[in-house]
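Sanity check

After download, print the first record. It should look like this:
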Amino acid sequence: MSQEFQQHINNKTNKQKIRYLDISNNDLVGEANLKDFTSLTSLNAYNNKLESIEFLNTLPNKEKLQSINFFGNQIKEAKNLQNLTSEQFNKLVVGMKDKSIQINSYKSTILMDLLEYTRHLIKGGDNSQRQQAQQLQAILQNSQVKSEQASNNSKTPLLIGG
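Expected structure tokens:
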């Protein structure tokens, strides 16, 4: 039976001291406010029923986050990519290139959202951003071809790790 993500988070104590949060295998649905998790460096949200990762924007110290795992969820889109710093975008590009970040999205717009953002950076970003965006665009276009060749999957896994 599914459980509301926020209710699950509300049951945690000493939130400000938690560095590693494992909420995997809980059939969690919905969104949550993570504003009290000021020390969080790692989030394992494997195998739930989450459809969005927008709740990550509620983290007060997002720059401390070193690894996240959303594999086995039903993530549908990746919006607000413009909120990424140049350093975060570079980590995304490097991570996808060396495969420490994997995005498998058969029934979502994640790859298209990333491609759209890279096109935006290629047109209007600084020189470094344009180079990174071109690298990511090549990786994404290769991934998109592989996704189209793969059979349909009822779940849309997203694994992001560092």
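If your output differs, re-run the checksum step. Summary of this record's structure: Confidence is low (pLDDT under 50) at residues 149-158.
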